[in-house]
Design goal:
201 residues; alpha/beta; Rossmann fold; 7 helices; 34% helix; globular
């Protein structure tokens, strides 16, 4: 059976809205065991190790990466030949974090930590070339993203399957209504999800 690995963004957590919606949808469909939503460590090397462990448990999951999680998902998809669905993904984040060095706080857990040049170097080590396979990569962007310029991802992932919606924001408005497309891309049979309305999640 297909499986799913959700990777949250910078200073986010499994308590984020999209993660919770995906968990509830999988519970509704009876496939909660096929989903992993790890609380990613703030250090990229430790976060990738968590992802590698989840991939080993799941086999060949669809990687679902939001923001910084999209950067991680791109690296992992290319390393393992997996499919990836990227939601407002960060592009080359190691080139954009200089203004964020210093104290950080997780938006959900309240954990505080220090973003250092060593973190940025670890992010740089994960860089891969722009993906060229529209069969393995879907990239969902909203033009109203207030955190990242969607045009950067549009250009970087131009060889992939792009879905660009006007408006929205960085959290990706209307995510739950797009879950049927996510389940289809993951390879779940349409009979599992086609009669469900996820808009109430």
């Amino acid at each position: 059976m297909p499986s799913l690995l959700y990777l949250h963004g910078f200073n986010s957590s499994p308590s984020s809205k999209k993660a919770r919606q995906l968990v509830r949808a999988c519970e509704r469909l009876g496939i909660a065991e096929q989903l992993r939503v790890p609380a990613l460590h703030h250090h990229p090397r430790l976060a990738i190790a968590q992802c590698e462990q989840a991939i080993a448990e799941l086999g060949a999951p669809l990687l679902i990466g939001s923001s910084l999680g999209g950067y991680y998902a791109t690296h992992l998809a290319e390393r393992h030949g997996l499919k990836a669905l990227l939601i407002n993904p960060a592009v080359l984040p190691h080139t954009r974090f200089d203004g964020y060095l210093g104290a950080q706080q997780n938006l959900y857990s309240g954990e505080t930590w220090q973003l250092t040049h060593e973190h940025i170097q670890a992010l740089a080590e994960l860089e891969v070339a722009p993906p060229q396979d529209p069969q393995r990569f879907q990239v969902w962007l909203q033009t109203g993203d207030e955190t990242l310029d969607y045009r950067q991802a549009q250009a970087w992932y131009r060889a992939c399957a792009l879905r660009i919606q006007p408006g929205g924001d960085h959290s990706y408005q209307g995510f739950s209504q797009q879950l049927p497309a996510l389940f289809a891309f993951a390879g779940f049979a349409s009979s599992l999800w086609r009669d469900h309305d996820f808009s109430d999640l």
